[in-house]
């Protein structure tokens, strides 16, 4: 009865809801494993079923819950120095992204992001061997562009991860620091979305209520996998996920 009531608010069929379940479960299994990737893995699939302006605010709720759970369990691994280095640039990017949200065309931005997210990790995965340290000054472009994409599409996580993977050798530290950054930006997005009036759509809350158990289950499944996969393999999983996400974004931009 409750599911039927919630479905009536979303205008989705039971089959469409059933298709959303594995998408959310998969996305947050990846989040539990790596500390990032939920939005960029889910968005290309979610937006085939629900509108972008519904999918992005809904995923934000899941990011807040999963990121908070991960932060509580792994806060000792967070690299505070890298967060302090990134956050000013991320905030500038998010403010700029809010301005662009109303005017910038979506397809070219997603295509550019998809190409970058595809090519950079493909190079790392196929041609580079071992850890290669990035210049800390790169926190500015990565933070600004990542913040802009976070505000507009919720897809800034790969850029934060690319930068942090070039600064942090330890896989647990990379996972904890990335997830903490995502939680911090999620609170910023929550304020931006509330100001923009996106949460006037009650379908967002109905969908979030139905799919939240899938997000939490995926998070714990990913955490279980993280404890059983060697750190060097986790880094390679990160690059492989980014390549998959890049293909997804290019596909979505091609479809318009």
From TrEMBL:
Membrane topology: Multi-pass membrane protein
InterPro entries per the UniProt record, alphabetical: TM_pro_TauE-like, TSUP
Principal subcellular localization: membrane
GO cellular component, one term: plasma membrane
Subcellular location: Cell membrane
Xref: PANTHER family: MEMBRANE TRANSPORTER PROTEIN-RELATED, TRANSMEMBRANE PROTEIN YFCA
Name of the protein in its database record: Probable membrane transporter protein
Organism: Cupriavidus basilensis
């Amino acid at each position: 009865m409750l599911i039927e009531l919630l479905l009536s608010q979303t205008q989705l069929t039971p089959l469409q809801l059933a298709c959303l379940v594995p998408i959310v479960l998969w996305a947050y299994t990846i989040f539990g494993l790596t500390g990032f990737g939920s939005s960029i893995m889910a968005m290309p699939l979610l937006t085939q079923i629900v509108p972008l302006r519904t999918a992005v605010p809904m995923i934000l709720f899941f990011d807040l819950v999963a990121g908070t759970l991960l932060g509580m369990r792994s806060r000792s691994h967070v690299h505070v120095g890298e967060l302090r280095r990134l956050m000013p640039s991320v905030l500038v990017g998010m403010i700029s992204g809010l301005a662009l949200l109303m005017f910038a065309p979506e397809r070219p931005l997603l295509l550019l992001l998809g190409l970058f997210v595809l090519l950079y990790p493909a190079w790392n995965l196929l041609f580079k061997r071992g850890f290669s340290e990035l210049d800390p000054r790169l926190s500015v472009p990565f933070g600004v562009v990542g913040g802009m994409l976070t505000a507009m599409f919720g897809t800034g996580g790969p850029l934060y991860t690319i930068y942090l993977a070039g600064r942090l050798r330890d896989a647990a530290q990379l996972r904890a620091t990335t997830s903490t950054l995502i939680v911090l930006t999620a609170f910023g997005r929550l304020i931006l979305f509330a100001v923009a009036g996106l949460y006037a759509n009650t379908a967002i809350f109905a969908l979030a209520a139905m799919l939240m158990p899938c997000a939490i289950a995926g998070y714990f499944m990913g955490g279980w996998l993280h404890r059983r996969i060697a750190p060097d393999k986790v880094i390679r999983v990160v690059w492989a996920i980014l390549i998959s996400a890049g293909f997804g974004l290019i596909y979505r931009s091609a479809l318009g």
